[in-house]
Amino acid sequence: MPQTTKRPTITGLYAITDPSLLNGDRLLTACEQALRGGARILQYRDKTASPKERLTRGKALRALCLHYDALFIINDDITLAAETGADGVHLGQSDGGIQEARQQLGSQAIIGITCHGSTALADQAAKQGADYVAFGRFFPSHTKPHALPAALQVLQHPLSIPKVAIGGVSHDNAPHLVRAGASALAVIHALFASNDIETSARHFATLFPED
After folding, report:
1. C-beta separation of 133 from 122 below 8 A
2. What φ, ψ does residue 117 adopt, rounded to 5°?
3. What is the pLDDT of residues 153-182, one digit of tens each?
4. How many CB atoms lie within 10 A of CB 141?
């Protein structure tokens, strides 16, 4: 697939890795299947690997995303995002500020912020220059079962930046999230625990027709 220098929009299937599902060589294989199926954003999330392993894997995933013309985002680690040449970083509420990320990654970096179920946090993130916010969890989550629930109505909150829905996203509930106002769907378990990752990805991707 041809590469492009155009900065893609935050929309569509947003695949997030999970080391408990993607051990060893399975990481690259599974992520390529997700990208072939239509994932437009891939976030590398791994809090268990060593710094050296994370750098090696991050660089490999970055190359994979370039091949499939998809965005590559690093979870939490601004330094790793810079070292891998990622398109940006996703930050939690306690993972460092937007200004710090901008200083290290530059003005073109994509910076996402977790806002849980709070429209106030989302408004603040947008004001500070975030490129998108993530709301959730909306449904019971395998990855974060104790995360506080978010109301579907937060996706209807008017914002000037895209809204990503996360938390228990499945093929059954995904259409409801899109109709409620989600610009993108962040998916972990329903994608990477699937017996057919590419088909699962394609199912989510069809909810976002190409322009």
Report:
1. yes
2. -115, 25
3. 999 999 999 999 999 999 999 999 999 999
4. 18
Which two tokens mark 175?
A: 């259409």
Distance CA 138, CA 141 (A): 8
Local structure of residue 149 (DSSP, 8 states):
P
Find where tokens 């996203």 sit: 169
97, 128 in Cβ contact below 8 A?
Answer: yes
| Cα-based angle 144, 148, 153 (whole degrees, multiple of 5) | 115
pTM of this structure: 0.93
Cα–Cα dist 115/136, whole Å: 8
Residue 191 burial (CB count, 10 A): 31
d(CA 65, CA 59): 10
Task: Tell me whether strands 71-75 and 132-135 are parallel, antiparallel or unpaired.
Answer: unpaired
CA distance 68 to 50: 27
